[in-house]
Amino acid sequence: MDGGALVLFSGGQDxxxxxxxxxxxxxxxxxxxxxxxxxxxxxxDVRPRILDRLRRDFPAxxxxxxxxxxxxxxLLAQIGGTSLTDGTxxxxxxxxxxxxxxxxxxxLFFTAAAALAYRRGLKYLVGGMCETDYSGYPDCRxxxxxxxxxxxxxxxxxxxVVETPLMWIDKAATFAMAEDLGGADLLDLIVEDxxxxxxxxRTTRHAWGYGCASCPACDLRAAGWAKFAASR
Length: 232
Known about the structure:
Layout: E1 5-8, H1 13-23, E2 29-35, H2 42-57, H3 59-62, E3 65-72, H4 75-79, H5 83-86, H6 105-120, E4 124-126, H7 142-156, E5 161-163, H8 171-193, E6 205-206, E7 209-210, H9 216-231
Parallel strand pairs: 1-2, 1-4, 2-3, 4-5
Antiparallel strand pairs: 6-7
Helix pairs in contact: 1-8, 2-8, 6-7, 8-9
C-alpha cells in the first residue's frame, strides 16, 4: 500500500502485532512510542529490543522498517489521578471504569502521531486499540477513533487513515494473527520480548510472557494465551 505507515508502538503485545501487520502491508513503516510517566515504563525499554529482533529475524521486513521516534507526553502524569501514572491501587473506579483509564491518552497519542506523520509524509496511523477484549476504555472504541480520524483530517488538511487491525478480535485471535504473519519466530518474539503488565513486572516468565499475573492486562493476556493454546 502507498503512503507509508506510522505505528503507535508501545512495546506491548497488541502494538507489536500491529507493527508486524503494517510491515506485511506497507513499503515504509515508522514507529512512535510515548513516555507519559507510566508506572510500567519498562515497556519503553523493550521497544528497541523488539525492533532489533524484527530487523534481524525478518529480512523481508527489515528493509521496510524505518525510523523509530519517542515523544514525551508527560503532561498526562502531571494531570495524574490514575493508577498508571500515580501508582495507586488498580481497581474499579466510581465512574465504572478501572483506575488504569488515563483520560485522553489515546486522543493525545493519535494527535501527536498525526503531527509527526504530517512532517514525515506518512498517511496511515496504526494503533492496537480493541473493543472486543479490553478494559472498557472509551478511547479504544471504534466510534471514537473514526471520529478522531475525521477531526485530524479536518484540522491538518491531510487524508490520514486510522487503522486498528485488532478492533474486532480478542487476545486469542491476536496471538493467532502474530503466528499467521510471522510464524513461530514472531509468536516467540511476542511472548518473550513484549511487555503488557501494568505493574512493570518482568521477573516471572509465564507461558504467555512476563508479568505479575494479577493485574487486568496480565489477566487478559493470560486468558487469551490459554484460549489460543487450546485451539492449536
